[in-house]
Amino acid sequence: MKFNLVNKIYIGMAVALVLASLWKIWRFKPWDRHYFFASVNAPYTFPIYIRDIYFLYPVGDEYGEGFSYTREEVNNFNSHWGNEYYSPRVSDPLRFPKQLVLQYVSYRDKKFYRDTLDLPQQLIEDTFKEAKEKNQLLVMSTNLGGEEKKGLHFVVGIANDGNLMVWLRGVYLEKLLLKTQLKAREPKAEDLYYAKPLSKQEYYDKMFRFIPDTLKDLIDRGVDRNAKYIDSPTHYIELNKDYWEAEKKRIKE
To answer: What tens digit of pLDDT does each residue of 122-167 get?
Structure first.
C-alpha cells in the first residue's frame, strides 16, 4: 500500500496528537491527585497578622484553596488554637504540596517571621493511603454544588515564639507532619509595603489597629504569658467524636 504526501501528513498529525495527549496525561498525573483542604490557626491570646501563606506544588501553576478563609479569621483576631474552617469546599484534585510558604508578624513580641518549609512527602502519601484503607477520609463539599468528595485536611497551627505545627486530619485521625520553630527575620522593604512604603512600626501599628480592647486587656494582664502552645493538644478528635459517631448511625439507618 502506497501513501501519498497528504496521507503522510495526516498520519503525522494523528501521531502528534496522540503523543501530545499522552504527554498531557503524564504531566497531569490524574492517578497521583487527591482532594484536600487547608486551614491555618493561631492562639487567641497570641494574635498575629499573616501577610502570606500558601502551598507550593510539584506543578508550578497549581493553586489549592482553603487558607484564604481561615487566614481572614486569624487576621481579624478571631482564631483559636487548633481550629480549622468549619465548611471546607474543594474543586479539582491536586498533587500533594511540596512546601509551605509563610510570612507574618507577631503582636506580642513585635517580630517578623518569613520562611519556606519542606513538607514530608512520604509521610503525607502514607497517611492518605492508610486513611483510605481505614475509612478515615473526611467528606467535603465541592464548588460544583451537590457533589461531595473525600479527602483529608491540612491544618497549620502558628503558636507563640515562632513555633509552628502542621497536621493532617481525618476521621479519628490527627497526624503530625511538621513541628518546628521559625527564626525571626528583618522584613524587606517589600514586606512592609501596604498601599505605600511603611516603616516597621507603621506596618505593625496598621496591621494591629483593630485588635479588640478585650484582647488587649487580657494580654496586658499577662494572660497566657508563659504558655507554650507548641506543646498544647488541639483536642480535635475529642471535639469531633460525637459528630462522627452520629454520622455512623445515620449511614447505617
So the answer is: 999 999 999 999 999 999 988 766 688 999 999 999 999 999 999 9
**Ramachandran category for residue 42: left, alpha or beta (phi over 0 → left; psi -120 to 50 → alpha):** beta
- How does strand 36-41 pair with strand 148-158? parallel
Q: Is 145 exposed, middle or buried (0-12, 13-18, 19+ CB in 10 A)?
A: exposed
* Residues 6+ positions from 56 with CB-CB distance below 8 Å: 97, 98, 99, 100, 101, 116
> Looking up cell 497528504, which residue turns up?
6
Residue 124 and residue 154: Cα distance in Å, rounded?
Answer: 10
- For 78, the 3-state DSSP assignment is coil
**Total-model pTM:** 0.86
State the Cα–Cα distance between residues 50 and 64, nearest whole angstrom. 17
